[in-house]
Each structure stands twice: as C-alpha cells, then as structure tokens.
Amino acid sequence: MLAAGLLPSAAGHSADRQASPNFVFFMAEDLTSQSFAMFNGGNGALTPNLERMAEHGVTFVNAYSNAPVSSAARSILITGMYAPSWGLS
C-alpha cells in the first residue's frame, strides 16, 4: 500500500525533473583554453561538437584553481572539500 501511495507523487516528480536544465561539466588533465580553436582565435584543436554545445550554453572563461597541482585540484572538484582537509597540497 505504501508503494501504491507513492506512485502518484513519483510521477509528478519525474515531470519536474524533465523541466530542469541539463548540466554538463568537462574536466580534463593539463588542458587550457588555448588548446581549443573556439577560445584561441581559430588556433588550436577543432571541436565542432563542443563548440555547438557552447553556443547553446554557458562557458566560463575566467576561473582559478584552489590548488597548485592537478591531483589536488581534481580532488577539490570531485569531493567539494579543500585539498588540505584531505592532506593534499
């Protein structure tokens, strides 16, 4: 009975989820914006699919890292915790 009572609310919840925006986050090792033609005046790798996604979404062009090395920076993004709390620097 409990499951039957939850079905109507689950159906309504899925409709809300379809209305929410999609979020795609790309994380790559040792890659800068200068590597892509779309950020470097046409010089760099041609990435038509990424360019198409960027045209219809939001791109961040100014950012900084909370850690001086890649492994610690990735740990921050994955866990949401600063590197020193994990013993990384």
Automatic annotation (TrEMBL):
<feature type="domain" description="Sulfatase N-terminal">
    <location>
        <begin position="21"/>
        <end position="83"/>
    </location>
</feature>
<dbReference type="GO" id="GO:0004065">
    <property type="term" value="F:arylsulfatase activity"/>
</dbReference>
<comment type="similarity">
    <text>Belongs to the sulfatase family.</text>
</comment>
<dbReference type="Pfam" id="PF00884">
    <property type="entry name" value="Sulfatase"/>
</dbReference>
<dbReference type="InterPro" id="IPR000917">
    <property type="entry name" value="Sulfatase_N"/>
</dbReference>
<dbReference type="InterPro" id="IPR017850">
    <property type="entry name" value="Alkaline_phosphatase_core_sf"/>
</dbReference>
<dbReference type="InterPro" id="IPR050738">
    <property type="entry name" value="Sulfatase"/>
</dbReference>
<feature type="modified residue" description="3-oxoalanine (Ser)">
    <location>
        <position position="70"/>
    </location>
</feature>
<protein>
    <submittedName>
        <fullName>Sulfatase-like hydrolase/transferase</fullName>
    </submittedName>
</protein>
<keyword id="KW-0378">Hydrolase</keyword>
